[in-house]
Amino acid sequence: MTEGSEPLVSSLEPLSPVAAKQARYRSEINQLFVADRAAHNWYRFVLSFPPHLVRDYLQRFGMNADHRVLDPFCGTGTTVVECKKLGIPSVGVEANPMAQFAGRIKVDWSLDPDRLMAYAEQVADATIAALAGLDKSAIVTEGLRALNEEQEKLILKNSISPLPLHKTLVLLEQLQHQADEQCSGHARLALAKSLVSTISNLHFGPEVGVGRAKLDAPVVETWLEAIAVMVADLRELGQRAPVEAIVHHADSRQLLHVLPPQSIDAVITSPPYPNEKDYTRTTRLESVLLGFINDKAALRALKQGLVRSNTRNVYKVDDDDVWVADQAEVQRLAYEIEARRIALGKTSGFERLYARATKLYFGGMARHLAELRQILRPGAQLAYVVGDQASYLRVMIRTGQILADIARSLGYEVVAIDLFRTRLATATNEQMREEVVVLRWNG
């Protein structure tokens, strides 16, 4: 907390035993409701925040067709999709090319659903023909298509088995041979969804990991099922009045590169949290297979465009920490983390970076909020969904409180810190809060 600022005591008050129990067992609060699945469920992060939370803040902020909403950490497009469903103009900014692609396709409802289905069936027939004669019973890899050595190093080891990979690569080849400018994006996104849900060996719980290897998987069939879901959704969504929904591939700390000054009335977003989670791993398999990342240089470029939330995307040239040099609580946390590391005798390269990663994270968020001021219209309202973390040697980081202090120091009014949900940390059994930091920019 900066010197002279008033603490938001309400955000740190412990829940009553009854309230804590209710919050603990309300895990469904972060789930995708059945009624919300259209477009949202074409492809989404396992930890995406839910559409109903976006609706709550759109209503609270009084947003309508005369306003424009921004999600500067757009992910796979939850905010922009929900805004479009409600007829509210919106814009997203996302640095991960796979996620940006997903968000862009999920707000494209102009495609003729019959054309998409016919195209998919044509590609499926061609793929099945190309796979004819494949000996699926033989547990061999000879003659199967595979990734090149550099691509193989980018994905999680054993994240997809040889036969499903071969069939996926054949399907991708047919998508390229029979490219349809209007349909190809939706078809490729359906394959990305199928990869993580059925074809690969990946599992999410909530971290991405590799489960039991599948000798085979129904690649074409699963892909066609995903296409059929899109077609059904497009029949309904395509009837709605058109409304602006744009998703830019850009760095949230450099918003003026893609957005004009004083063009945004509200922000609803969920930035990364300060933890030891490499968010690029969540989308690594589909990013490689769809061609968004082909080598280590491309992966490095992707990581450099992200707010530094973990040690795996920290580089020597990084200097976002200068933005929080006078933030006492950030400096205190970094000191405590480093002192804990030394006391525990932790000496690995990653562990030595914990304190710096913490400062770079909050510095990156400060840099983002500073630039954002030029994009906002006077009176703009903002909602940031963030969570407590204790990833760095179990030192508790109250993310919402610190983000509120940083925002206040940059001239924002801190309206509230709303509790979204709580969870128990498995390592410490401490109560971890996920909160919505509500701000206002008065200009």
Automatic annotation (TrEMBL):
GO biological process: methylation
Record keywords: DNA-binding, Methyltransferase, Restriction system, S-adenosyl-L-methionine, Transferase
Protein name (Swiss-Prot/TrEMBL): site-specific DNA-methyltransferase (cytosine-N(4)-specific)
Family the UniProt entry places it in: Belongs to the N(4)/N(6)-methyltransferase family. N(4) subfamily.
Protein species of origin: Stenomitos frigidus AS-A4
Enzyme Commission identifier(s): 2.1.1.113
Annotated ranges, domain DNA methylase N-4/N-6: 45-97
Gene Ontology MF annotations: methyltransferase activity
Catalytic activity: a 2'-deoxycytidine in DNA + S-adenosyl-L-methionine = an N(4)-methyl-2'-deoxycytidine in DNA + S-adenosyl-L-homocysteine + H(+)
SUPFAM superfamilies hit by this protein: S-adenosyl-L-methionine-dependent methyltransferases
Highest taxon listed in the record's lineage: Bacteria
